[in-house]
Design goal:
The protein has 7 helices and 5 strands; from the N terminus they run E-E-H-E-E-E-H-H-H-H-H-H. It has about 180 residues and is mainly alpha-helical.
C-alpha cells in the first residue's frame, strides 16, 4: 500500500510503503510505530491493526495496560493482544473519549499526552486521577482476563494451567510454591 500523504515536515512521501515507514520510524528510534491503521513494536516482530480505534489510541491502551499490570518479563505484544478487544465499534466512542480525557490530564501535568510522559511513576499518577471513571474500569477489568488468560505467558508466572484433566493439584506438587 503506498501512502500519498505529506509528512509532518511538509515533504511528500509518495511511494512510501508501510515497510518504508517502519524502517524510517525504527531508524529514528521510535518506541512504538503508529501508522495508518496499525501499531508496531520498534524492537520486536509484532504489530496490531486497528479497525474502530485510531492507532494512537491503541498505542495509549497498550501503554496503559503495561502501567496498570506491570510485568517486566511480559512483552508488549501480549499487552496488545489484551487490549485489542477494545477495538470494537460499539466501544470506540467511549474508548476514544477516555483516551482524550487521559491526554487532558497529562497536559495538566505538563506533558503533551499520556504517551509523552517518559516515567512510569508520572503515568501511574495520571491513571490514579482517572481510576474512578468507567473508561479506566473498563480497561482494567478487560485486562484481568485479556492478559492473564494468554497461555503463552503462564510459564512466566510458574502456572502450569488447569489441573482438573490431570487429576487435580494434590498429586501435582500443589505445595511446591518456591516463589512465596
Amino acid at each position: 500500500m503506498n501512502m500519498t500523504h505529506p509528512s509532518p515536515s511538509g515533504s511528500d512521501v509518495r511511494g512510501l510503503t508501510r515497510r518504508g515507514l517502519l524502517a524510517r520510524a525504527l531508524a529514528a528510534g521510535a518506541t512504538c510505530v503508529v501508522g495508518a491503521g496499525f501499531v508496531a513494536a520498534r524492537d520486536a516482530a509484532w504489530a496490531v491493526e486497528t479497525a474502530a480505534l485510531k492507532p494512537e489510541t491503541m498505542a495509549t491502551l497498550i501503554q496503559m495496560a503495561r502501567d496498570i499490570y506491570p510485568h517486566d518479563r511480559i512483552a508488549d505484544r501480549f499487552y496488545a493482544i489484551a487490549v485489542k478487544t477494545h477495538d470494537d465499534p460499539e466501544q470506540a466512542g467511549m474508548i476514544e473519549a477516555g483516551v482524550s480525557a487521559l491526554d487532558l490530564v497529562a497536559q495538566g501535568q505538563g506533558f503533551d499526552s499520556y504517551l509523552a510522559a517518559g516515567w512510569e511513576k508520572d503515568r501511574v499518577a495520571m491513571l490514579r486521577m482517572i481510576e474512578h471513571t468507567p473508561f479506566f474500569q473498563t480497561i482494567r477489568a478487560g485486562l484481568v482476563t485479556g492478559l492473564y488468560n494468554q497461555k503463552e505467558i503462564w510459564p512466566l508466572f510458574g502456572y502450569e494451567g488447569e489441573s482438573y484433566s490431570h487429576g487435580g493439584y494434590i498429586e501435582r506438587g500443589f505445595n511446591d510454591i518456591d516463589w512465596l
